[in-house]
Amino acid sequence: MNKSELIDALAAKADVSKAVAGKLVDAFTETVTKAIVDGDSVVLVGFGSFSSGERAARTGRNPRTGEEISIAAARTAKFTPGKALKDAVNAKKAKKKK
């Protein structure tokens, strides 16, 4: 599902126009981005949490040449799914196996 498909689905589910749904998606992403950049986390109980993490500097290899390269430390965005989301995904997976 891409952004426009998400907007269409939200508009239909919430019975609002696509313009309003688009503004809400944009506002949500901007708000979560700002919180993560500021070092905060966003927790949606049952769905999951968005936060930032630290990735340590490390040594890697150029796959083409095999040469060792230095990879700098970086901050990353993380999403940790909540229990309800995990259970929903696993329930769908269990149905497919039957």
From TrEMBL:
This is HU family DNA-binding protein. InterPro entries: Hist_DNA-bd, Histone-like_DNA-bd_CS, IHF-like_DNA-bd_dom_sf. Histone-like DNA-binding protein which is capable of wrapping DNA to stabilize it, and thus to prevent its denaturation under extreme environmental conditions. It comes from the Bacteria. PANTHER family: DNA-BINDING PROTEIN HU (PTHR33175), DNA-BINDING PROTEIN HU-BETA (PTHR33175:SF3). The keyword DNA-binding applies. GO terms for cellular component: cytosol; DnaA-HU complex; HU-DNA complex. GO terms for biological process: chromosome condensation; DNA replication initiation; DNA-templated transcription. Belongs to the bacterial histone-like protein family.
